[in-house]
Amino acid sequence: MTQQAEKTSSAFPALEDVASGASPRIAIAFGGGGARGLAHIHVIETLDELGIRPVAISGSSIGAIMGAGMAAGMTGEAIREHALMTVGNKTAVVSRLWGLRPQTVRDAVANGVRIGQFNLERILKAFLPADLPDRFEDLPIPMTVTATDYYGQQEVLVSEGQLFPALAASSAIPAVFMPVRLHGRVMIDGGISNPVPYECLMDRADIVIGIDVVGAPEGDGTHIPNRMESIFGSGQLMMQTAITLKLRIQPPHIFLRPAVGRTGVMDFLKAREVLAMSQGVKDELKYALDGAIEAHARSERL
Known about the structure:
The protein has 302 residues and is α/β, with parallel strands linked by helices. 43% of the residues lie in helices and 12% in strands. Strands 1, 2, 3, 4, 5, 6, 7 and 8 form an eight-stranded mixed sheet that branches. The chain is globular and about 60 Å long.
């Protein structure tokens, strides 16, 4: 056992089972929240540190993107480095978006140049690691992505077929990106219908973890929000209302809310700030896992 594992085990006794390979089956749901979802990196790094490989992963919006990286076999450290070199780097953002510009006047007229008119699948392919597989079936860890059927008014779960169209559909944040056509339907952000999609994992693992990075409007209570603050803030309120109801009906075994402050949905250039303020979720997850594993062990002994 490594020195790090020995240190972890002494502080969290039940995690000794994890280090010895005798851990229960664990699954994780990564929630939506735009740039706030960079906090998911801490969760992935912690699972890596503990030697935990989830039996299944689900995700909405940015959670689908982060989850896809983990499902593909990327470490939390690798995801952190990639995020800081791409969305967290102004020069890289400008360069990659410039590469997506219309090449001719005809293209500009046909496709538009506003961010909401970009092909979101193209944007993802420009920013995500090149070695992500094209299909769900090629992911080493089973992955489920959520999207919202705009006209069908319901959540859609995708776990097979082409990966990038599903990620684009799940990440189509209203007022930021245009809806995405998937399987003949018009889809928008998966977080609209299910901000933290842990329910689809409950019968697939002994311990299910849900990570909420939706956040909420913050302020002194007197500031009148401007137009964009109202749009995104009302979205946060709506999603938190849905989460509260979900937790009353059927909570996961572990549910954590990393500190994300007033980070805006598109504040990816604040990647280092988001990672700094959400650092505490690492110990929160260790304590929660220690308790959940011990509870599972007691139930197995009964």
